[in-house]
User: Fold this.
Amino acid sequence: MLIYKRILIIGAFVALNALSYAQTISSANFRISDKRKGINSADLTLNGDILVCVSGEGEISYVDAEKDVEYYDSSDKEKAGKIKAIGNIQIDYYDNFDINDPKGKLKSIGNIKFLYNNSFDINEKFGTLKSVGSIAIKYYNGF
Assistant:
């Protein structure tokens, strides 16, 4: 019986630890303009305390957080100078291994995925934002 209690307690700690690394979008504000097609930028509040602005080109414009911001160094030429992590939240970008996707655009912030219209989305403009996490973005075009 004591072994089961220990296993239960260890399981509870592992679950709490896993939840502490999950990111949630507390709020999302998308900016559009009549001067250009698509989304100009998106302000995302993560976990209620990190503000990240993503440009329409899929770049992180700015970060407002009380955490350390780490950047990729020159050893990764495709990602050099881009934000690598905010605190313990890892950030990734599309690169040459993502054959059908737009290179250099934001791929993920922690467990929040950024999807773009790629070469398989024949009726959509290549590289436009398709979804941010569970938030789907639809464009009304000629079809």
About this structure: Residues 11-20 have pLDDT under 50 and may be disordered. The chain has one helix and eleven strands.
